[in-house]
Design a protein that fits this description.
Jelly Rolls; six-stranded antiparallel sheet; mainly beta
């Protein structure tokens, strides 16, 4: 299981590129996967690559990604590719933290669990009435370290949460481009939700 590495300091994470052990190997592998072809080929290659990187003893994420934030799950951008445009965001989930139903603003994404356990539930859009959306849960899974999945619009509606009451979880998210906003869906009644715009900020090291 990945552990905190004391030789991986975490500088200002507003920067698009954060150094950490195995950084160059990590980025070279992602670049190769992103050059695979269309979005289906890219996300398939990234899933395989990310699973391998999570298990690679030479790659250690910065210490700060193992530090939860009390009142929200942390989003820390650790790399942004100038050449390919993709963004890598590490998310830290404190006990019980999670997301509402949300989309990815039309961006493909590959998500992998680096540490801990996460519950992921996919939602199927059944119908839309203006800003009202009818969703139905279409299957869930508990994902542990070394697992990865992908989302390709329009199949992008989901929730992520850390069900543990005493342990943190860390996940890595690779987006087609920086995701600075998304839509979240607030429950109304039954299967109906109302859409709300949601700006996505990034967190810095404490």
């Amino acid at each position: 299981m990945p552990v905190m590495n004391t030789d991986a300091p975490c500088p200002d994470l507003a920067a698009p590129d954060v150094d950490f052990p195995g950084h160059d190997k990590f980025i070279a592998a992602l670049d190769l996967a992103v050059a695979s072809g269309d979005e289906h080929a890219i996300t398939a290659a990234l899933r395989t690559t990310l699973c391998a990187l999570i298990r690679d003893p030479e790659v250690h994420l910065p210490n700060c990604v193992f530090e939860p934030i009390e009142d929200h799950y942390a989003r820390r951008e650790i790399y942004r590719s100038e050449r390919h445009g993709y963004s890598v965001v590490a998310m830290t989930w404190g006990p019980g933290q999670g997301t509402p139903v949300h989309d990815h603003s039309g961006l493909w994404c590959v998500e992998g669990v680096w540490d801990g356990q996460l519950e992921i539930t996919q939602f199927e859009l059944l119908e839309r009435d203006g800003e009202r959306f009818r969703f139905r849960a279409a299957g869930g899974m508990q994902a542990g370290p070394g697992s990865a999945g992908s989302l390709i619009p329009p199949h992008e509606y989901h929730t992520i949460g850390n069900a543990s009451q005493d342990s943190i979880a860390v996940s890595l998210h690779i987006y087609k481009a920086p995701m600075e906003c998304c839509s979240k869906f607030v429950p109304l009644s039954g299967e109906w939700f109302v859409r709300a715009d949601n700006a996505l900020a990034t967190d810095e090291a404490a």
